[in-house]
Amino acid sequence: LIVLSHNHADHYYGVSGALRKREIGQIWSNGNISREELSNYEVLKVGAGDIARIDDVSLEVLWPPAAASNFSNLAGDGSQENNRSLVILAQVGQVKILITGDIEPEAQEEIAKRYDLSGISILKVPHHGSRFQSELFLRQISPEISIISVGESNSYGHPDSSLVEKLRDMGSRVYRSDQDGPISLSWRFDEGAMGYIFTTRNVGRKWWHIQWL
To answer: 152 by DSSP, 3-state: which?
Structure first.
């Protein structure tokens, strides 16, 4: 499964490389992406309420709803297309991960109002750690792990330093691809839920442990 969150180049460029020499079952999108290299694959438009299960992983699409296109353009680096990003709640055992695309505060707050976001362990921080974030959204999740996907020395100044500080003040461990390199996750469930975070730039294995009461 490949998920293309929305129709911005930094979220679909490179998909041809990801397709190479791999067996792909489906490609999910918000319905706004049309690429020649996808013509030989099953591309499904998904939205809020769609659910799938792949082996031990469940995937629930939380966003966008049918009316997401009615959101206004936002200040700064916001856009309607950002707010059409697919937002997916992934669950592996008892570990919950929220993957957020580039949603802006307006969409973040709608999600916080519609869903119970407590118990999410890992947050893929929206929009590369932009300064435009909903306090309600972040406080509801209060993630143990925050992952920021961001290019090194990018012209936008992402991630925002005050956001990184806020996440750390909330007790979240922050990993960012511009400093840590590519980030991957794996779990063991033989004793509670043991998770490992692998990075390519920082040598060694960093681990975290969740005790379920």
So the answer is: coil
